[in-house]
What does this fold into?
Amino acid sequence: MATAASFSAVTFRLTYRVNKQRYAKTFHGTEAEAKKELRALLRSGDTGTHVVPTRMTLTEWAEHWLSIGCPGRKKRRVGRRSLERYQQLMRGHVIPELGAKRLQQIHATEIDRLYEGLEGKLAPRTQNQVHTMFAACLNAAVRKALLSVSPMERAEKIPSPKAITVKSWTRNRSRRWCNTSRAAPFTALLRLPRSLARGAMKFLACNGPILIRSRKRYALNGPKGEAGTGSDAEAKGAQASSPQAHNPD
It folds into this structure.
């Protein structure tokens, strides 16, 4: 037998049975919403998706999740450095705000307020890391049948990492730079940004000059047949030392 006893105008105590086991749940809302929730609980017992009510707090679950290595969807432990980062983010930003609440009573609006409070404190990338870590923690609780659905799915203020704008040279600008390098000593050294130095670069295509990589410096070597200067040897040295050097031929 299922009942919805009213404690007040907005608080109800729902009692029901699943597999001959009696459960009770406190629900806040209108009478119509309480009856709807009671029907949903009975239906979850029939479909095998029933979540046993628990008084476990977010802190208790989060610490357990951290202690077992923060397994994700593939049920694998994260690396040591990732684990240390997750511990820092969880204990430094999530637990102080929501840790005392029961895991099953966390609402999406509270997650939105958590993210709003982080906007003035953390960089966009760090905010996104907090979200990624917190979402993984709640999803693990769903897999453990501690939650029927993650409240993160209803959150709307999801932080996103700041977009990185990459400026590329137009063909005309590349040609002007090539022509300028020919007018001067035809070997020019170009110090690239860190992102390009890490390999995220496509070599400039010019008629004649090519780029020769030497660690974080790139040498522009003139075409064959042009008169060279003392810097010509520097370009040849860079070409010899680079395993990815291109032949002008």
Observations:
- Residues 171-241 form one domain.
- The first strand starts at residue 3 and ends at 6.
- The chain is about 40% helix and 15% strand.
- Residues 44 and 50 are 5 Å apart (CA to CA).
